[in-house]
Amino acid sequence: MGVEDDFTNALIDAYRRSGEETGYWARRFLAAVRRHGGLSTAKRMLKPRTAGQRAGLDTLLEAGRPDLTIEAIILRPEYRGLFTEAELATAEQRLGDYARQSDRIRSERERLYPDELEPGLQYTEGARKSVRVNAAERNPRARRACIANHGHACSVCGLDFGQRYGEVGVGFIHVHHVKPLSLTDREYTVDPVNDLRPVCPNCHAMLHRTEPVLTIEQLRERLRD
């Protein structure tokens, strides 16, 4: 098996890992690799990205995985000889940009949603939504599933940021683990419907003011009192 075949297999492996670890299955990319070969596909993708290609890229950057981008694979020592100096320079510039974008996304998430769900390993679909997570690897898709079921209003005080602040507040809400991550084993299964609740930042902070943390019902009762 030659280097080009190895490169094609590396792209297919990245496709699989991206799907398993971020939930995004780039099936058009896989079809292109199988139809045209990995090298031809990679060279085409070094040109400006289409909207569809950019959507997959954004998912990887949101998950903090620029190492799974096609540019990262191109720049592996064993594959650099397949590309021109100009193509390698493009890949290096892009990969640097991806790392900075991924860092900005993480910083913004930590600023807006402290102690919340971050990108994780796996998310399965079905009647009972679940995601495997640990304290370091969490999944934003579980957040979306929680909000899809419970809505954007705070489960404690009822605040809806969109209704209170207008357009700037639409979609803003924290998501609270009913069972704190610190009390779980290293890896466990979360049901976004039963284990997560949308809460406003104030109520989220108050839930964690005591040890053990307050339940949503306990904090709601304090508000009533």
Summarize the structure.
With 225 residues, the chain is mainly α.
β-strand percent reads 5-15%
How many strands, what sense, and barrel or not for the largest sheet? Answer: 3 strands, antiparallel
Helix content: 40-55%
Return the structural class.
mainly alpha
DSSP, total strands: 5
Shape: elongated
Indicate the mean pLDDT: 81
Report the order of strands and helices: HHHHHHEEHHEEHEHH
Pick out the low-confidence regions: 115-137
The number of helical elements comes to 11
Strand order across the biggest sheet? 1-2-4
Tally of distinct domains: 2
The Rg value, from CA coordinates, equals 21 Å
Whole-Å distance between the termini?
73 Å
Question: How would you describe this structure to a colleague?
Answer:
- The protein is mainly alpha-helical and 225 residues long.
- It folds into two domains: 3-112, no CATH class; 122-224, no CATH class.
- Helix content is 53%, strand content 8%.
- The protein is built from eleven helices and five strands, in the order H-H-H-H-H-H-E-E-H-H-E-E-H-E-H-H.
- It has helices at residues 3-22, 27-36, 38-45, 51-62, 70-74, 85-112, 140-150, 161-165, 192-195, 201-207, 216-224; strands at 122-124, 130-133, 174-177, 188-190, 196-199.
- It is elongated and about 70 Å long.
Please tag this protein with its features.
5 strands, 2 domains, two-stranded antiparallel sheet, 11 helices, 225 residues, mainly alpha, 3-stranded antiparallel β-sheet
SSE layout and pairing:
Elements: H1 3-22, H2 27-36, H3 38-45, H4 51-62, H5 70-74, H6 85-112, E1 122-124, E2 130-133, H7 140-150, H8 161-165, E3 174-177, E4 188-190, H9 192-195, E5 196-199, H10 201-207, H11 216-224
Helix pairs in contact: 1-2, 2-3
